[in-house]
Every structure is written in C-alpha cells, then in structure tokens.
C-alpha cells in the first residue's frame, strides 16, 4: 500500500514538473554511460569532465524549462522562431565568423552563437505548425510549402558551408511531412527528385573537402595517411575491440591517440574498442529505448502539431545516432555529426535536450488538453 | 454540424494515419539498428583478428639494438681494436623553452660554429619535436666535462655517448686489422643476399678490409631489440619486452705489439714487408707492411683529401705488401729447389759442379751470369746455397725442367693463395708451360727455365708464401695455413683456433730434409755465408737464405751499379730465415723494395726482429 502511494507521489511530483519519468531515466542512463566513456576518451581529463557535466546540467535545465511550456504556446511561437532563425542565418552569412573554413558563428559579444542550432528546432516546428493547421494527410500544395520551408534554411546553411547540419535540418522538416501522412507515391517521387539532384549537389554545392570526404568514404585505403586516416584508424579501433573489448581505459587505439577526435565525433570507436560489441549493444538498447519512448509519446499526443513535432524530433535524434555510428564504422561518409549525449560538445547538446524538452511538454500536457 | 463531424472523423483517421507512420518509422529504425549491429558484428567478430593485428601494429614498434663489436687483442692481451665512447651534444626541442637563449648560453660554454648551429636548426624543423638532435658531435674531454658540470642549467640538453671503433696503435696493425666503416649500398645488398640484413638493422658499420672484414660475422654479434609501445606520434610510452643484444666475439691474434713496433722501427721509411710465423701451427707473429696508414681515419668517414693522398701516394700505402706484394723470390727459393734436386736424385750431397761465373745452354752463346762475375769455382749443394751460387742452380734447373719445378713448388704453396684469414691476398705466379701459353701465348723455352731456377723470370711470390713454403721444409712436408687469429672468446669461453697442417710432400729420403735445413744453417753460421755477417753474435741459433731480386734487365756483360740506375729499379732485398735451428719456433720473411742486396739489407732487419723475439720471449710459452 505504502509503496503504491509513494510511487503515485513520485509520479505526480514528476508530472508536476512536466517530466516524463521513463524518458528521463533513459536520458540519465545514457548520460552516465557517456560520461564514463568520456573519462576514458578524454585521456582521463578532469577539466573536460567538469565542462561536460556543466554542459549536461545546463542542457537538462533547458529541457526542464521547455517542458513547462504548453504545446499550444510552442505552436504559437513556431513561425516567429523560424523567421527569426532565417534572419540570423542571413546575418551569419553577412557578418559571421569564419572558423575551420566555415562561416557558422555569430558573435553576440558575450557568446558565440550558431543560428543553425535554432533551426534544428525551428524548421520542424514551423513545418508542423503549417501542416497541422490543415487536415491530414496534407494536400500537394501544403507539401510544396512544407518543402519550401525546409529548403530555404537548408540552402542557407549549406552555403556556410555546413553540409551535415543542413541535411539534418532538411531531414527534420521532411520527417514532419512523412509523419503527417504524405502519400507513398509522393515519397517515391521526392526520392527520385533527390537522386536527380545529387549530381547538382556534387558539382555545384559541395566544397572540395566535402567531395574528398565522400571519395575517402568510398575507398579509405586509397589515402591511408591522409583523408582516409580517420576512418581506417576508427575501423581498426572498432574491429580490435572484439566481442568484449580491450577493457575500460585499455583501448590502445584511443589511449595512444591513433584514433583522431576520439572524445568528440569518434567516441563510438572508443566504446567499441574498450567495451566491445557487448557494450555497443547496451548503448544501442539505450538509444532504442529512448526512441521508442519518444515515439510512444508522439503517438499518444492529442493534437497533430504535438504528434508531428515529437515524431520529427524522435526521428531526427535517431538520424543523429545512425549517421554518427554509420560514419565512424564506415557505413557512411564522414560528415561531422556528434554521437548524441555521448560526444564531448557544446551547443548541440543544449539543442538536443531542448528537443527532448518539447517532447516532454507534449507527453505531459495532454491531460490538461483533453479535459475540456 | 457537418463541418464538425468531418473534423471528428478526420481526427480519428489522422491518429490512425500518424500511428501507421510511427510504426513504419520504428520499423525502419529497428532495421537500421540491425544494420549497425550486423556491421559491428562483421568488424568486431568476423574480422576481429585482422583488426587486432593492425591495432598491435600501430601500437608496437620494434626498436633494434646494435650489439657491441667484438674486441681484438694481441697475443699477450693488449687491445688492438676497441669500442670507445664518443660524445655528442644533443638537444630535445620539446623540452627547451627558449631555443635561441639556450644556443647562446651553450655557445658561451663550448665552441659552436655557425654551420653547426645552422644545420642543427634545420634538423629541428625537419624532425619531430621530442626527437633528440645532435648539435655537436665528437666532443673532446674538456667539452664533455664543461657540459656535465652545467647540465642542470639546461633541461633538454644532454651529452650522449655512442660506441665507436678505435685502433689505439694507429698505423701499426692496419694491414692486418683493416678497419670498419659505414655500411654501403653494395654491402647492404650482400647482407640481404646472405640473409643477414635483419641482424644489421641497428648496425651502422661493417668491416671493410683486413680481419675486421674477414671476421665480420664473428665480430658483429647478434642484434637485440626492444618491443616498445608508442603513441600516434611515435613517442615511446613504455617498453614491453627487451631482448638484449649479444656482443660479437673477441678475437685474439698471434701478433705481438713489441714485434710489430720493432718491425716499424727497423723499416723506417723503407718500403717493404716483414712477416713472421710460428711454423709449427701457422700462427702469424708479425705482420707489417710499410708504409702504413692510420685506420682511424676511415672509421668516421675519411675526407676526400686524405683519401686521395693515400691513393695517389707513390709509396702505395694502401697495398698490403705482406699478402699482395708480389716479388720475385730470387735466391730465397734455392733451398726448395735443392730439395727437389736431391729428391729426384738429380744431385746428391756429393755432386759438385764447376762455376766459371756464368752458365750457357747447349747450342747457345748466351751467358747466364752468376752474381759473382769470376765464379765460385767448384761448388756442392751446401756451398751453392751458403754462397748463393747461381750457376749451380742454372744447371740444376735445366736438368729438372720447368714441369717438375712448377709441380713441386706449387705443392709447397707457390702460385697459390695461402688461405690466410684476410681477403686481401694475391696468389703470385708459379710459372709453367700451361701458364705461359695462357698468359703470353708462347711456348716455354729452356731459356725461361734458367732464370726460373734462381727465382727470377716470371716467378713472383708474396712474403707470406715464402714463409709458408719454408715451413713445409721445417715441418718435413707439412704445410701450415697461416692465420692471424689464434682464439675466439666471449664472456665465458675461449676457443683456440688452429687450422690443421696439410701434408703436401712425401720425401723419398728423410735425410734430405736435414740436408736442406743444414744448407740454410750454414748460410748464417759459416764464414762466407751470405747472411753470416748479419747474425754475428746472435744469442740464438738461426738459419736462413738471402735473395736479391733483379728488377731491371741488365745488358750482357754490364755491371750492376746501384748508384747509376733509378731508385725504383734497384734490386729488391729478400731474406727468409728461421730460428732456433734445431727446433724452429719462428720463420720470418723480409722483403725490401729497391733496397739492394738481400744479405746486407734484408738479413740485418731479420736479425733485429729475431733479437727482439728471443729477448722478449715472445713465443716462449709455447
């Protein structure tokens, strides 16, 4: 009896803060997993651990804050946020800072700010706003407008150039359209159009280093000390980990720094090397649990905007996971996407948890919506 | 109403539509996760061994460690070739905060040329920052001391010691020891072909000539290695396994420092060679070719000025006169011919001939002159050798014929390499009919046999061949293989090295040995013997034979006048001797280029060598 009471009390406390218990549990487990690996991947760097902890704390706070906002409010703010984001993207092209050969940052005086991060949230939210203001499945012209809403920021970001982010943002918008029930015929048609667009992308939109990445992906051994080095060393790290791994803190590829960017984009290789295939299965299970829980929340949402936004964020999260693991293990070209919630990194972490804040908002405000 | 109903229907349909899409999306998610797992399985389980190997290959580097080269000792244990530490000043750029300031401070302590600094800075740019880079090599003792005292002021600056070959006696042993130098491409290919290249991974040097070359394999030793773990920049993290190198074997020579010094002192500026051997086992006691040169010049790479000076010198110091100097043996081979005469019964101890001062072939009026213009009168084999009568041997030679001479002398080792343990050796020429046909495409004439029987004409020998052939007489038919090395040793064991004697001649009459040895004894002992004056007052009982090799053709009836002809065409002085007479422990050959008569020039030098030999008791322990 007492246990039942306590359980109810705990649930209600979480519900009071609009936190979804299972999702929070999944996220915390993943963060714990990530911190443990980061300790090893950073070369047991305490300063980096502290920085990552602060970042996770800030990101969790942002998530909690956003979770308090009602989905209707989020829906109202979707279009203004989108337009503001577009303005910032234009601004960044005009006055942005150049870092690593790309123009991505806007110096706000007290901090540097990457407008494309805002668009990761704003694009799917705005598309969901537009699509959900009409009945589903969307008509053709709704889809066309939706595609345009994806295409404009995508092209602006691709111009910075940040191909990886632009594709992910486009994907986030397109996921809204997919979840809204866009017909399979149109999906097939769009796929055909994209295929036709690829040569244009290759010839006119991609920079040399991007083309090089793709070539390297197709045959990493062609340049083992140059552009193929990352992927070769990464595959060696993964493969040599075997079933059980070389042991925590014992990965030679990572600890002796043969593996480049081991604490950021290539941290999955560290996991594979040190705790092996079994560790990878644990990680994938955590991801699958979070994705499943989010998709469940989306399907339980009571208005279309909430469903579409939550569904799109969920799939985008999955795409992050898949693209990162895919590139690190040689299934995809190297595009510079961090492993969500594990890789050491700044703004993307906040953006990511902001998205989970939106999903939690969707998951915890539905009763109040259903009441009247 | 209608509008609202439509909306409600829409809502339910929309929910179903979304849920269907959600299921499809989740299916895709699961399929792609399975793809990841399948790929991970391929990498981590199926190809595990492959990637494991490549990972180890990344991390583990094998660092070869060169073995210490074996040392070389003389017969009494004096070091002739050692490994001396040479010091170099090295800097690790990574550990130096202010390179300019460090270089300035260092230049205040020791002399640094602008070239040294410049080449150092060039290397700093080219190499990895944690690599140690030499600023100055071959520091002297003072510099080492100054730097050691100031070490604490310079983090990242070290004085590194490396072993380098050094020959403490300089030019005294050069032609025997040879020297080492940096391994060149051709030698590397040879090592590869011999399957030895792996053992040389850490070695810089290889024996170039002499013993250093002949015993390269023994002296070199076996490479050791360390398996070390390195990071991606190649920096050493830790040593995983260490297999120490096995030093090369030390070699011990029969040579004696005192005897060598005596040889060098008595020869002074005289071009020539002295070689002495224990006839009983072939161990070389003295081995000196004059002029010599300092082998240390070659160890660190000889300058081209120094090298061309050696190469172009009129005295040809690079030639090893003991084994490569091919001289007409002249009268030194008369005892050997006498033995053949006695053995074939061509002469007996009682045979006497009349020497009018010349010899003429039948049906010819060409006079082959004796060195004594007026002749020796009646001579037997004893007198003929003692006084070196040419006419006696002209006649004997003609009776024997070139074929018997050539065969017999070849058995004694003439015209053949002796097989001494250095590779710089000439075989000399033991002429024969076949040789002359092959070499000059001419038949052998009796006129060729006449000078042949006094060791002239085409016959050439090395000083080493002379003592080997003489040892055959002393050993009563057994030929020793001359060898400089008498033992090998490592930390624990010492193994003697003595090639067995080869029986080459069986005599018909045992007493012939004694007769021939007796003739050489009389040469030294009896008044009128060509070597008598040189050995007056010797504390030991010596025997020997002089030789004077004529280099310039002298016209019929003309008198040889040493002053009148070019110095380089003057006679070579030769001497071959042994002692003690009754039980010889040393046989010695002296060859002096353009020095004049053997009795007056070569024999006194042999005397001084033997004096030292017996006074110092060089070989007395055996």
Describe the structure.
- The complex is a heterodimer of chains A (372) and B (622).
- Chain A has 372 residues and is mainly α.
- Chain A is 73% helix and 3% strand.
- Chain A contains 15 helices and 3 strands.
- Chain A has helices at residues 2-16, 21-41, 46-68, 71-95, 115-132, 140-158, 163-179, 184-205, 208-218, 229-241, 252-255, 267-300, 304-328, 347-364, 366-370, and strands at residues 97-99, 102-107, 112-113.
- Chain A is globular.
- Chain B folds into 2 domains: 63-253, Penicillin-binding protein 2a (Domain 2); 257-616, DD-peptidase/beta-lactamase superfamily (Beta-lactamase), CATH 3.40.710.
- Chain B is built from 21 helices and 23 strands.
- In chain B, strands 2, 3, 4, 5, 10, 18 and 19 form a 7-stranded mixed sheet that branches.
- Chain B is elongated.
- Chains A and B meet through α10, α12 and α13 of A and α1 and α2 of B.
- Chain B: Belongs to the transpeptidase family. MrdA subfamily.
- Chain B: The active site is at 331 (acyl-ester intermediate).
- Chain B: It holds the Pfam family Transpeptidase.
- Chain B: It comes from Rheinheimera aquimaris.
Précis, in short:
The complex is a heterodimer of chains A (372) and B (622). Chain A is mainly α.
Strand order of the largest sheet of chain A: 1-2-3
Low confidence ranges of chain B: 1-9
Q: In the CATH hierarchy, what is the architecture of the largest domain in chain B at level 2?
A: 3-Layer(aba) Sandwich
Largest sheet of chain A: 3 strands, antiparallel
What count of helical segments of chain A does DSSP give?
Answer: 15
> Which term fits the overall shape of chain A?
globular
Mean of residue pLDDT values of chain A: 86
Return the CATH topology of the largest domain in chain B.
Beta-lactamase
CATH homologous superfamily identity of the largest domain in chain B: DD-peptidase/beta-lactamase superfamily
The number of strands of chain A is: 3
Main CATH class of the largest domain in chain B: Alpha Beta
H/E element order of chain A = HHHHEEEHHHHHHHHHHH
Estimate percent helicity of chain B. Answer: 25-40%
**Envelope shape of chain B:** elongated
Number of domains of chain B: 2
Task: Determine Rg of chain A (CA atoms, Å).
Answer: 21 Å
